[in-house]
Write a structure and sequence with these properties.
alpha/beta, 2 domains, 16 helices, Glutaredoxin, 8-stranded mixed β-sheet, FAD/NAD(P)-binding domain
């Protein structure tokens, strides 16, 4: 469950030369052995990237979680390939971002070609001094494997494989599940059900919930190819290349010298025929020859054909049942918005769910999960649909316009802005969220209430090196002063008092030098990037949400205003 992804026709050989598939142990559920019904505060269904991140996030906050999946291994083939900077920052917070980056292929530059000429390029991370790159490429099975290993480290997170949910009955104060296993069926109840069971979402179907949008009448071939090549670590996209005329091709390098190549096929293509090696290999040889490497040896590792859709549910929360990832929304693959968006769903949801479960926030806080993430989904759907319409024109007139834009883009900046080979995943700015406290003071820059927070280098007594590494999982207040040693006693006491509340706020002193007193943690802005990116002056404050978004900001500390902003950000106002 949770691995259906963007397509209808994923398949292929499960034996790879570069990766050995793990087999996760099935264990007879105690409910069957003891003949009883089981209850868990939270059940997550689907052990794909999104379900695993949801379960890990909540378990790290001290909540008991049960994760169910109908499989006993990780996903087949590369599937999701690109993981964006924001998703990596979330994974850092969950404790497995570093191994992802170490294993994956980092990149920032993408190039677009029309026939034989480069017409457009972009840089995902033009600013210096960010911890993570704009993107990494890594096969999805690695991500899932790392996440399972991280989950196994958490004693309050139980995973059950080969456990298939066959019925869900929502209720006022709980949801009831019927689960099928190799040993028979059993019943569970849960206070909260998090659904991450993929694009076809059996649970969404069981509940009779609609998902609306657009199905694209086109097919693409994925070929994962093992070869040693000297191509730059960049994203290359071709429109109408001589080796695949009238269609498009996308090339990415992944870990283990595996290259992911996507060939546009057209709707009339026969998926089964196109997947045959005798049809795939000539396409790859033609691409290599066009790039001067016709003698390059390669091994065809995995092949699939996919279609895709752009659609979403009307709401992502339905009483005690909460939908995340592909179960809630689906986009085309151009722009790497699928798994990245799903990981951001869980980042938005889990801190809110924990506050509700702890009785510190009303259930209406979960409505803001749907509101904010529906907004993000609509942004993704809009960008993904525009990309797909540009890549796969639906009429001769559209194609003529598209090719004219590409022809002009090599020489004219206005045309480059119209080139769309996939607007890549970036986090959403929730500027209209009801959780924000509006500015009462003037600030420059983009770190407005609702913005995802920019990273920056820091130095701390505990050895932390990045701002986002010091943020997350709780409400925090950044207070800026040039020299932390000059922080007066009254201000230090006021900052410390923020921890004494139903929803505590940790105060962090940001300074160019010095060490704060009264037990306050000091972040040294070692390269002046925090002051620069957040437009800080002495006394400036930023209230950070647990998901590293700005909740409020002021030019001077006022404890009453901070407490009011926390109340607003948790629907307690």
């Amino acid at each position: 469950m949770g691995r259906a992804g963007i397509n209808d026709e994923y398949g292929g050989d499960t034996v790879l030369s570069t990766f050995q598939y793990p087999k996760f142990e099935y264990r007879r559920p105690p409910e069957i052995s003891e003949g009883r019904e089981g209850h868990y505060p939270v059940i997550v269904v689907g052990a794909g990237p999104v379900g695993l991140t949801a379960a890990i996030d909540l378990a790290m906050q001290g909540q008991q979680v049960l994760l169910l999946d109908n499989d006993d291994s990780v996903s087949i083939g590369s599937r999701g390939v690109c993981y964006a900077k924001r998703a990596l920052e979330v994974l850092d917070r969950l404790g497995c971002g570093e191994e992802m980056v170490q294993k994956g292929v980092s990149w920032n530059v993408g190039r677009t070609f029309f026939r034989e000429e480069e017409v457009f390029s972009f840089d995902l991370c033009p600013q210096p001094d960010h911890h993570r790159p704009g993107m990494i490429n890594l096969q999805q099975y690695y991500l899932e494997d790392y996440l399972v290993k991280r989950a196994q480290q958490l004693p309050n997170l139980e995973m059950r494989f080969k456990n298939t949910v066959i019925a869900v009955t929502p209720g006022e104060d709980k949801a009831t599940l019927r689960v099928e296993t190799p040993d028979g069926a059993y019943t569970l109840t849960t206070d909260w059900l998090v659904v991450a069971d993929g694009a076809r979402s059996p649970i969404r179907t069981m509940m009779g919930l609609d998902i609306e949008g657009k199905i694209f009448m086109d097919r693409f071939l994925i070929a994962d190819v093992v070869m040693k090549a000297e191509y730059p670590t960049e994203r290359w996209f071709w429109f109408d290349p001589p080796f695949h005329p009238n269609q498009s091709v996308l090339l990415h390098r992944q870990a283990d010298n595996v290259w992911r190549i996507d060939f546009q096929l057209g709707w009339q293509a026969d998926p089964e025929e196109e997947k045959k090696p005798e049809n795939v290999i000539p396409r790859i040889k033609a691409m290599l020859a066009a790039n001067g490497t016709e003698d390059r040896e390669f091994e065809l590792e995995w092949v699939s054909v996919y279609t895709f859709q752009c659609r979403r549910m009307n709401r992502f929360n339905h009483g005690r049942v909460l939908f995340v990832g592909d179960a809630a929304h689906q986009v085309s693959p151009f722009g790497a918005r699928g798994a990245n968006s799903g990981i951001q769903d869980t980042d938005n949801l889990m801190w809110k769910l924990k506050l509700v479960m702890d009785g510190k926030a009303p259930a209406s806080l979960l409505d803001t999960y749907s509101d904010e993430r529906v907004f993000a989904a609509d942004e993704n759907l809009m960008n993904s649909t525009r990309s797909t319409d540009f890549i796969t024109p639906k009429s001769a007139v559209s194609k003529t316009f598209r090719n004219a834009v590409l022809g002009l883009a090599e020489h004219y900046p206005f045309a480059r802005a119209l080139v769309n080979s996939g607007r890549l995943s970036v986090p959403s700015f929730f500027t209209d969220s009801c959780l924000n406290t509006a500015d009462s003071d003037a600030f420059a820059g983009v770190m407005v209430p609702g913005a995802p927070m920019d990273d920056a280098p820091i130095e701390t007594a505990s050895g932390e090196k990045w701002l986002l590494g010091a943020l997350g999982n709780r409400f925090q207040l950044l207070y800026y002063v040039s020299d932390a040693s000059t922080l007066d006693a009254a201000t230090a006491q006021a900052l410390a008092s923020l921890a004494d509340a139903l929803i505590p706020v940790e105060a962090l002193v940001v300074a160019q030098r010095g060490t704060a007193t009264a037990g306050l943690k000091t972040l040294i802005d070692s390269k002046d990037r925090i002051r620069e990116r957040y437009d800080l002056s002495p006394g400036s404050c930023y209230l950070a949400r647990p998901d590293q978004h700005v909740a409020a900001r002021w030019r001077a500390l006022d404890v009453a205003k901070v407490r009011a902003a926390v109340a607003r950000a948790t629907c307690n106002a």
